[in-house]
Amino acid sequence: MADDNGALLADPSSLLGQLQRGRGAGFLGALAADPNEVSPQLLTCILHDPRFDGQLERRAEYYACLAIHARLPLAPLQDYVQAHPGQLQRDCFSLPFGVLTRMACCGCGDAAAILVRYLTYGAEWAEALDAIVRSGYAGQSLADLGGVILARFPDDAVLAAEIGRSDVTMAIWDQWAAVEPRVAPIFAGALAAFHRPRSSPSEAGIRAGIDPTWDVATLVSRVTHDAVAVYYLCHSPDIEPDAKRKIEQRLRASAP
User: Fold this and answer.
1) Cα–Cα distance between 231 and 75 in angstroms, integer?
2) Does residue 72 lie in a domain region?
3) What is the chain's mean pLDDT, rounded?
4) Cα 253 from Cα 256, distance rounded (Å)
5) N or C: which terminus of the chain has fewer CB atoms within 10 Å of its end residue's CB?
6) Phi and psi angles of residue 92, each rounded to the nearest 5 degrees, phi first
7) How many CB atoms lie within 10 A of CB 213?
8) Is residue 224 a part of any domain in this protein?
């Protein structure tokens, strides 16, 4: 049986078939099985994405936990990301990268080391950097990791554009700016460029799920870590500085 992406799906009663479908029974079965038997089946799932829709089925954490348990050899995942350096690597598009980032966040040093190397060439370096920092990886400091990025993008304008297109939270940029003076103005410039109006504030507010007619108190109460648009929606001359500070404080406080 094949899914709509062309991946061949095994019988749903088999361990491989259950793992391909992301079932709880498959997870429990893999935990109970011989890791040497589980590893090749996990690699099949990760390298040949069996999901119907990666944006609806977030499977990276499911496979990452099993990969850690089975002590999955990571060389095939590293080979994959090296062979696809310009690919959108977020886990809805690329399971190998998504599994590596989740493994790193769970404390897997080998996965974090692969992501450190990815920083030198990969398109989704910001997501890799975020995962490495979240992992508490002791191989290199944030200053050292940031140095890799600064060497890769010596032009501030290029680095600003790269930062502006990333999806990582503000926390990573704040941490990096604290140890690298060059990053703070680049971060500010990237945000300004990224959020420069391309459409009316009302349309931006609608996209963010925010009613632009709400007052400041209501906006502040609705701010979450991923609602950067809220901050910029009300970051205008019409809003008092104290209100802007409250919104920014709430945004930063809610970041993971």
Assistant:
1) 42
2) no
3) 77
4) 8
5) C
6) -75, -15
7) 8
8) yes
pLDDT digits (tens, 9 = 90+) for 85-139: 776 545 445 889 999 999 998 889 999 999 999 999 998 898 899 899 888 876 7
Count: domains in the chain: 1
Decide if 246 is inside a domain. Answer: yes
pTM for this model (two decimals)? 0.69
> For the residues of 224-245, what is the DSSP string, one character each?
-TT-HHHHHHS-STTS-HHHHH
- State the number of CA atoms in the 13 A half-sphere of 120 facing the CB: 6
Answer yes or no: is 180 within a domain: no
> How is 100-113 classified by DSSP, letter by letter?
HHHHHHTT-HHHHH
pLDDT of residue 151: 94
The 3-state DSSP class for residue 16 equals: helix
30 Cβ contact partners less than 8 Å away, ≥ 6 residues apart: 15, 19, 38, 41, 42, 66, 69, 70
